[in-house]
Design a protein that fits this description.
451 residues, alpha/beta, ABC transporter transmembrane region fold, Rossmann fold, 6-stranded mixed beta sheet, 15 helices, 10 strands
């Protein structure tokens, strides 16, 4: 982005000025002597041929340098974020070697690209010298005395003045080639195909109550390998539903389909009777709240992060939301309260504190459908007691889908679905499933025995 900005701010202005210089010098040259003017211009086809011969190589070289540089930055970022794991497995030496090899690859790619760039001013400088020399030779040997010494000196000066901006344009050409390589990387990201998009005839989802229905839903991440198969259920507005089952059974897939992060392979997902594949994404997701195990906190103040859920939220609304989820007290203990800077990814906060802020952020957006995917997994048992009270307030009047491995946190849900073998194996309240003594009963008792 910096390379593109530099090119746009400096290169274009210099390009325009140099073009004006070339035009005016050309006019003066032809007014002085037409024949020698054509001699001066004769070097242009040679320069164009030289540029054309190295253009493709330059472009590939800068693309390679850009890709290797991105890989190096990505590896560096990954290494910093995973520093504790690296230290735990004594991988410092191996990681340093990998980083060193990638840095050498970047250096080599850069040197190759720069070497190719140097060919452009080399062509321009040498051709200009040949042209000026040829002007004097042609004038002295073949055109004298038709061409006077004064005219010859003037044409030599015009040749110098003509080729000076050409040499500068050669440098701008290099910057242009570099910028094209970087722009291609930017456009690769911009042009990344959107897997989920609004249908051509999509309509805004009106304000919802929160009824959710799956009708014969099947879904596969890979073609022919279904994760869910012919799944059907109904959830009434305001009901809380817990999704439990073995890892990989499809619990998170179900809530992702409700949020329309994926489209169903077959069947329908309905909200208040509206097929969500036919409504606009913004109108759907603006009425939903999602809380994940890994709470993402943006750089900025605590208040800014909570206001992310509602940009026009007042300070009173922010504090009310934080008190509801028991985040208010710890916020007041920070350096500047709600105006405390939390740094990138909330590095100054504990995992539990970040989770509490995400609860407040979701609460203030007032969603009608709420998804909690292992939302309390990162919070210790003591904190969880307080947070659970806040979550209970958050769930009131909202349709909620809760994924939790700690079954003690979902006992009070209106409905518990045990997901297994691509469908619902068991469904009922906690007491009903315990009395049934099926898969849920065995999972629950096994957790009790581990406590």
């Amino acid at each position: 982005v910096n390379s593109v900005s530099k090119m746009l701010s400096n290169g274009i202005l210099n390009f325009i000025l140099d073009i004006f210089n070339i035009v005016f010098i050309t006019i003066f040259m032809f007014s002085e002597n037409v024949t020698l003017s054509f001699v001066i211009l004769a070097g242009m086809p040679l320069l164009m041929a030289g540029l054309w011969s190295v253009k493709a190589m330059q472009r590939r070289a800068w693309q390679s340098e850009s890709n290797k540089n991105s890989n190096l930055n990505a590896y560096l970022n990954e290494s910093i974020n995973g520093m504790k794991i690296t230290q735990l497995f004594v991988r410092e030496k191996v990681n340093h070697e990998i980083f060193s090899n990638q840095a050498k690859a970047v250096s080599f790619a850069w040197q190759k690209a720069v070497a190719l760039n140097q060919l452009v001013p080399f062509f321009a400088e040498n051709i200009s010298q040949w042209v000026m020399s040829f002007v004097y030779i042609a004038g002295m040997l073949w055109m004298y005395p038709t061409v006077t010494i004064g005219t010859l000196i003037a044409m030599g000066d015009y040749a110098r003045r003509f080729w000076q901006p050409i040499n500068r344009l050669a440098q701008i050409y290099n910057e242009f080639i570099n910028t094209i390589a970087y722009l291609e990387r930017i456009f690769e990201t911009i042009d990344e195909p959107v897997t989920i998009a609004d249908a051509a005839d999509a309509y805004p989802l009106p304000p919802i109550n929160g009824d959710v229905e799956f009708k014969n839903v099947s879904f596969a991440y890979e073609e022919g390998v279904n994760v869910l198969e012919n799944l059907s259920f109904k959830v009434k507005a305001g009901e809380s539903v817990a999704l439990v089952g073995p890892t990989g059974a499809g619990k998170t897939t179900i809530v992702n389909l409700i949020s329309r992060f994926y489209d169903v392979t077959a069947g329908e997902v309905l909200i208040d009777g509206n097929n969500i594949s036919k409504v606009t994404l913004n109108s759907l997701r603006s009425q939903m709240g999602i809380m994940l195990q890994d709470s993402f906190i943006f750089s900025g103040t605590i208040a800014d992060n909570i206001r992310f859920g509602k940009l026009d939220a007042t300070q009173e609304e922010i504090e009310k939301a934080c008190k509801t989820v028991f985040a208010h007290d710890f916020i007041l203990q920070t350096e500047k309260g709600y105006e405390t800077e939390v740094n990138e990814r909330g590095s100054r906060l504990s995992q539990g504190q970040k989770q509490l802020l995400s609860f407040a952020r979701t609460l203030i957006s007032n969603p009608k459908i709420l998804v909690l995917d292992e939302a309390t997994a990162a919070i210790d048992a003591k904190t969880e007691k307080y947070v659970q009270k806040g979550i209970n307030e958050l769930l009131k009047g909202r349709t909620s889908f809760i994924i939790a491995h700690r079954l003690s946190t979902i006992k009070n849900c209106d409905k518990i679905m045990y997901i297994s073998d691509k469908n619902i194996a068991e469904c009922g309240t906690h007491d009903e499933l315990i009395a049934k003594k099926g898969e849920y009963y065995r999972l629950y008792t096994s957790q009790l025995s581990e406590m």
